[in-house]
Specification:
It contains 28 helices and 24 strands. By secondary structure, the protein is α/β, with parallel strands linked by helices. It folds into two domains: about 400 residues, TIM Barrel (Alpha-Beta Barrel), CATH 3.20.20; about 280 residues, TIM Barrel. The protein has an eight-stranded parallel sheet. A five-stranded parallel sheet has the order 19-21-22-23-24. A three-stranded mixed sheet has the order 15-18-20. Helix 14 packs across helix 15 and helix 23 packs parallel to helix 24. The relative contact order is 0.09.
């Protein structure tokens, strides 16, 4: 039987135990000891599940209280200087305090430090904490988490494979915080820490370690490829007695294959879901004795594996290499999928017919095990063969289902015309009309959309679902909350208001619930960042809009004030990216279907008298293919989809969009091509660094660089925000600038939200008064 290999398992717990424990710890409701016990309980459960599933190489150190890259930063002692006071005491208690301060910021006992910058993990919706490097960066073994967690599993009788971010990928994930050096220059200072870690693991009897090097699947220059050879040649000298697997994922190796295959390691993992065709090249170039881990089960999506297609790849590899040199694995860590399909028991939201097509993390391990057995033995009497028959039957049921395809939707996409993606006039002409209509001041203030969803607001939604309260009672409660939010915004002096989104569960799920082609899970949670979990809806079929989705609540809010209230929509690319998307047609086709549905909603809001409409696209950068050769095609259809959703309104209607935690330098021309009247972006954690792309490009439309980091509980001062706005004014014409937080405020509490927004409005007024007196 072929060995089975797993790269990582969901760390949040099947019932989001990690989220609940972390948030209880942060609020002082549980002790540090209780938090650590909750983490151990999740790890233990994960290891035992994988052991029971028959996984041979079970990962450890894939658990994290916040983020695996932050874990690595603490492990190698790359602690930014602003945290040195917190780092001075290296007790376990202070290590956890330091860890969360780096993740979330810290404001207590006279210490006030900002959180580390956060950005997207390659082309996923997972966010990692960006390592910060200085020219003479010192590294040291600061945290022994990887050793401790291996020992925990060992005490349970479970042999695990410790997982680390590989040294080159770790450096490439970071940022230089001063000029005059390249972060890869730090490799000689970093490697001794890796060698110490490996030596310590060796002393504990570790058999395998996994070094994640996802950058090997990206475009690399010759210098970086040469560095891979040097680094792994050096590490090979310290790994005697421990076998090493280098894991690549999210793309094919392509032109990096020869370097990756000839690293002095024992096994190489490749992603055959993202690039099935690379296997032919890999098998042609693979050296003798190197073991190949085949990522044939999709670690990024929730559809059942097609056993026939996977077995074809496995058979090809085993014929060339033999069964001893081939492992079966998911394509990447299962961090990106929900825990267990067995927890789904609501047939109203997830019909039995669609559930039959799905597999979550636990089921994907079953698929890995089945494939490893079937690759060697396909006797009809075996349980694995019965699973094979069930798998093929399920595939056929999905292929022939009448739920999926709708000819009217397909025909509408086929008839999209050029005029459907063009605003009637240029931006300068539109801006003149909008200034006349809206009469906004310089540095207009707004928020990104959502306000805090308190325990009470969430409880109302739960009571409605359970039938404890009626729809009419629920609506009255939401109306009161909306009325209070509008009143508070008026009193605070905000210029463009929002209704607060109290009726919404999630910015994608809310729309999916009102669109044809979607179903929903009860416990299909995945981690987005830290304790923030999302429950992506399942987009299984053709998408269409059959009714108004947001008009009622936006119109109600607008009826309460004379100030403009934004209509709040999620854009087509983000709805695609943040759903579990069907894999039976091109993603572009699905996106155009969604765009037409959003366009219909935009026009309905315009008809209802809404003057400003925000179409959020935080995931547009996230969807960018990792290889440059594939990016132009994506950008063409992604820009077209946004414009299709927005272009039908009159010139005096102002279209906003929002993007967060993205690097824009390489796609800034395409961001401009969206032709949104106003774009709001995250810039506070990066101290306005991300604004440089817009300045260098001479971005023509209006822009709101976020001055308030909503992902941290700390409250910034008015002076701090003025400083950020002064930085923005230095690179962007002040007449283009809006003032806003960097993201929605759903996850924050009201006291900190009000204090921060009061400071934000004060900062805008101060800048406004200076300009008005000049």
């Amino acid at each position: 039987m072929l060995l089975t290999n797993n790269l990582g398992y969901p760390r949040i717990g099947a019932q989001r135990e990690l989220k609940k424990a972390c948030e209880a710890f942060w609020s002082g409701k549980i002790s540090r000891k209780e938090l650590l016990e909750a983490g151990l309980k999740i790890r233990t459960s994960n290891w035992k599940i994988q052991q029971e599933m028959g996984i041979d190489l079970i990962p450890s150190n894939d658990f994290s209280f916040y983020d695996q890259v932050l874990d690595m930063t603490l492990m190698v002692g790359a602690i930014p200087q602003r945290y040195y006071n917190l780092a001075a005491n290296k007790s376990a208690e202070h290590e956890l305090e330091l860890y969360f301060a780096m993740a979330r910021g810290f404001q207590h006992d006279g210490i006030d430090v900002t959180a580390m910058e956060m950005t997207k993990w390659f082309d996923t919706n997972y966010h990692y904490l960006v390592p910060e490097f200085i020219k003479n960066q010192n590294f040291s073994l600061f945290s022994e988490k990887i050793i401790n967690e291996y020992y925990e599993a060992k005490q349970l009788g479970i042999e695990t494979k410790p997982v680390l971010v590989g040294p080159i990928s770790y450096l490439l994930l970071g940022k230089e915080k001063e000029q005059g050096f390249n972060r890869l220059d730090l490799i000689d200072s970093l490697l001794p820490v890796y060698e110490r870690i490996i030596e310590a693991l060796k002393n504990y009897g570790v058999k395998w370690i996994q070094l994640d090097e996802p950058f090997l699947s990206l475009d690399l220059d010759d210098k970086t490829l040469a560095l891979y050879k040097q680094v792994y040649k050096r590490l090979a000298k310290s790994t005697g007695g421990i076998k090493v697997i280098v894991a690549t994922y999210f793309e094919g190796l392509k032109d990096n294959a020869e370097v990756a295959l000839n690293l002095p390691v024992d096994a190489l993992h490749i992603d055959l879901v993202r690039d099935r065709q690379q296997l032919e090249t890999i098998l042609r170039l693979i050296p003798e004795k190197l073991t190949l881990s085949l990522g044939v089960v999709d670690g990024r999506n929730i559809w059942k594996n097609n056993y026939d297609k996977s077995l074809e790849l496995i058979d090809t590899a085993t014929k060339k290499l033999g069964e001893n040199r081939v492992w079966v694995a998911p394509s990447c860590s299962l961090l990106h999928v929900p825990c267990d399909l067995d927890n789904e028991d609501n047939e109203k939201t997830l019909p039995k017919e669609v559930k039959d097509w799905l597999a979550f993390a636990k089921q994907k391990l079953e698929e890995v095990k089945d494939l490893s057995v079937l690759a060697e033995n396909r006797q009809e009497s075996s349980p694995a063969y019965q699973h094979y028959i069930e798998n093929q039957t399920s595939q056929e049921r999905r292929r022939t289902s009448t739920l999926i395809h709708h000819i009217d939707v397909k025909e509408r996409v086929a008839t999209i015309a050029d005029e459907d993606i063009q605003r009637k006039s240029t931006f300068p002409e539109r801006k003149a009309r909008q200034l006349e209509t809206l009469k906004l001041p310089l540095f207009p203030t707004t928020t990104i959309g959502s306000f805090p969803q308190t325990k009470e607001v969430r409880s109302w939604r739960a009571k409605l679902k359970k039938g404890v309260i009626t729809r009419e009672e629920y609506d009255e409660l939401i109306k009161e909350e909306t009325k209070d939010a509008i009143k508070w915004q008026e009193d605070a002096g905000l210029d463009v208001l929002v209704h607060g989104e109290f009726e919404r569960n999630d910015m994608v799920e809310y729309f999916g619930e009102q669109l044809q082609g979607y179903v929903f899970t009860k416990n299909g949670w995945v981690q987005s960042y830290g304790s923030r979990c999302v429950k992506p809806p399942v987009l299984f079929g053709d998408v269409s809009r059959t009714q108004d989705m947001t008009v009622y609540w936006t119109s109600y809010a607008q009826s309460l004030t004379s100030l403009p209230v934004k209509g709040m929509l999620t854009g087509p690319v983000t709805i695609l990216q943040w759903s579990f998307v069907r894999d039976d047609q091109p993603r572009s086709e699905t996106t155009f279907q969604i765009a037409l549905a959003i366009r219909d909603e935009v026009l309905a809001l315009e008809k209802a008298g809404i003057k400003i409409i925000q179409i959020d696209e935080p995931a547009i950068r996230e969807g960018l293919p990792l290889r440059k050769a594939d990016q132009r095609n994506y950008l063409n259809w992604a820009v077209k989809a946004f414009r299709l959703s927005a272009a039908g309104v009159a010139d005096d209607r102002q279209i906003h969009t929002h993007m967060c935690y993205s690097e824009f330098n390489d796609i800034i021309a395409d961001i401009a091509a969206l032709d949104a009247d106003v774009i709001t972006i995250e810039t506070s954690r990066s101290q306005m660094e991300l604004l440089d792309a817009f300045a260098n490009f001479n971005y023509p439309n209006d822009i709101g660089p976020g001055v308030y980091d909503i992902h941290s509980p700390r409250i910034p001062s008015k002076e701090e925000m003025i400083l950020l706005l002064e930085k923005a004014k230095a690179v962007i014409d002040y007449k283009q600038l809006w003032v806003n937080p960097d993201c929605g405020l759903k996850t924050r509490a009201w006291p900190e939200t009000k204090a921060a927004l009061d400071a934000m409005v004060g900062a805008a007024k101060d800048l406004r008064s200076v300009k008005e007196t000049v």
